[in-house]
Amino acid sequence: MTTESKCELCQGDGGRLLFRSDKWRVVAVEGLEGESFPGFCRVVWNEHVRELTDLSAADRQEFMEAVFRVEAALRGSLNPHKMNIASLGNLTPHLHWHVIPRFADDPAFPKPIWAVTLSSASLDKLAVIKDRRPADGASWEQAVIRALE
Ligand SMILES: [Zn+2]
Fold first, then answer.
1. Low-confidence ranges of the chain (pLDDT < 70)
2. Sheet holding 96-102, edge to edge
3. How does DSSP assign 24-68, residue by residue?
4. How far apart are CA 81 and CA 78, in angstroms?
5. In degrees to the nearest 10, what's the CA dihedral of 16, 106, 79, 73?
6. How remote is the CA of residue 41 from the centroid of ligand 1, in Å?
7. What is the per-residue pLDDT for 118?
8. Would residue 100 count as lying in a domain?
9. What is the pTM of this model?
10. At a CB cut-off of 8 Å and minimum separation 6, what does 24 contact?
11. Within a domain: residue 1?
12. Number of domains into which the chain is organized
């Protein structure tokens, strides 16, 4: 398995681990980003691979299926206004997808989440957002794990 010593996604999970398969994992984003955007997950390829086209067709399909399952679970549990799905990796060139439920009252809406600097100025909205609970009472984390098992 290819790893790189300077890559944060090789050296750690990249968030709070929700599910791991042989080839990929799903983590919940932590810290101010995770608090600001409830349900924010990353789907990370376990091996240090740079681009989607470096994967075999079968692996690519499996990876994307994981992204779609996470998206569906987050939609079902959090009922967001919109889902944002992004693969950037300019700073960490290790394949990962950001799966981000967006809400009209989140600190960046309607901009991409990276278009704003999260700070104490955005914290006043967090109290409202943190109170958002999935309709069925289960946590969104549980919904994601169930969708992947
Ligand atoms: Zn890596």
1. 120-137
2. 16-20, 24-28, 41-45, 96-102, 82-86
3. EEEEE--HHHHHHSTT-EEEEESS----GGGS-HHHHHHHHHHHH
4. 9
5. -20
6. 17
7. 82
8. yes
9. 0.90
10. 43, 44, 45, 46, 62, 63, 66
11. no
12. 1
Query: Residue 24 Cα, ligand 1 centroid: separation in angstroms?
Result: 12
Rounded distance from Cα 3 to ligand 1 centre (Å):
5
Q: What is the pLDDT of residue 64?
A: 98
- Centre of ligand 1 from the C-alpha of residue 134, in Å: 33
- Kindly state whether residue 50 falls inside one of the protein's structural domains: yes
Ligand 1 center to 45 CA (angstroms) = 9
Task: Show the domain range for 48.
Answer: 8-148
Kindly give the distance from the C-alpha atom of residue 47 to the centroid of ligand 1, in angstroms, as a whole number: 7
pLDDT of residue 129: 57
Neighbours of ion ligand 1 (CB under 5 A): 4, 7, 9-10, 48, 94
Here the CATH number for the domain that contains residue 39 is 3.30.428.10
Q: What integer pLDDT is reported at residue 120 of this predicted model?
A: 58
- Structure confidence by residue, pLDDT tens digits, 76-113: 999 999 999 999 999 999 999 999 999 998 889 999 99
Q: Does a structural domain hold residue 37?
A: yes
